[in-house]
Amino acid sequence: MTLLGLDGLRVEIGGRVILREVTLAVAAGEAVGLVGESGSGKSMTVRSVLRMLPAGSRVTGSITVGGLDVNRLDSAGLRRMRSRDVAMVFQDPRATVNPVRTIGDFLTEVLRDQGISRVEANRRAVALLTDVGVDHVERRMHQRPHELSGGLLQRVVIAAALATEPKLILADEPTTALDVTTQEEVVAILHEQRRKRGTALLFISHDLELAAAVCDRIAVMYAGEIVEILPANRLHEDARHPYTQALLRSRPGAVNPGSRLETIPGTPQSAADAPAGCVFADRCPHAADHCREVRPVLSPVDSGLAACHLLPNGVPHVA
Ligand code: SF4
Q: Which residue has the higher pLDDT, 180 or 273?
């Protein structure tokens, strides 16, 4: 059953196109990774779901959560969705948690907003912190954010996201601000806890491998469009879009130690600057004239969907 549905989502900010025709469905309990280079529109996609776009944004197409049309929700409906059905984990935990309040206050406030008593909210906050692997929980409840490391604080933010038992968590590069070892721990906790609870996840990352490790499916974005969607466990075998293949070849693990890393020629483009046809045409080694003029649509290929005029037969598998 579809929990989150994006259909032909288009966003313009100040007349500049940011997203063009984003179509994606996330099922209840499913984890989908949204990957791509900086500026590809990943964060704007998740912000659209919560209607957290800058003033003056123009949104067309549809966004549904649990069958509700997000763009038609009144302010009470939007507040209910944000506080109960959908939780967000941002990149930087220090920008999320009020620096002058205690961790206990931060967590119990989320619960008390649901009408839960102070005593029960306190009990649940302790249990949540324990679930996400925070040590010395009773002491942490009385500490302030500056007394916790970035990794511990991001666990607190994950605990807050889980507190209302949402149906969907939107995680926007939740480990980018952390060191590599801590990143792995935090992602493992998010993965374990959301699976245990059956919570769906839209996981934003520029790291294909990381997303594939914790997600069921991967959606690859470039210049405001989704160009390929495929099962995470078929990423290496079935990636067919030239952009996904280039991303796979340019990851650090793709070359032997000491060898030169492959890069994608050219620079990432925004949706506004990309060609009207295929958004990847200016950087694609297979581009033909009609690629720049005719927009390819997502079509079935192997185990997933890809938007490329050469498919299903013309593009080689990743070596
Ligand atoms: Fe490359 Fe053309 Fe396919 Fe776009 S449609 S990815 S430019 S071959």
A: 273
- For ligand 1, the distance from its centroid to the CA atom of residue 71, given in whole angstroms, is 33
**Average confidence score pLDDT of the chain:** 92
Contacts of 59 (CB under 8 A, 6+ apart): 9, 10, 11, 48, 53, 71
Residue 106 counted as domain residue? no
* CATH number of the domain to which 257 belongs: 3.40.50.300
Ligand 1 atom nearest residue 314's Cα: 8
Q: Indicate whether 193 belongs to any domain.
A: yes
Q: How many domains does the chain have?
A: 1
Asked whether residue 121 is assigned to any structural domain, the reply reads no
Residue 313 banded pLDDT, cuts 50, 70, 90: low
Candidate of 243, 308, 311, 313 to mutate for ligand 1, largest count of ligand atoms within 8 Å of Cβ = 308
Instruction: Supply the Cα-derived Rg of the chain in whole angstroms.
Output: 20
- On whether residue 222 sits in a domain, the answer given is yes
- What is the per-residue pLDDT across 3-38, written as a single tens digit (0 to 9) for each? 999 999 999 999 999 999 999 999 999 999 999 998
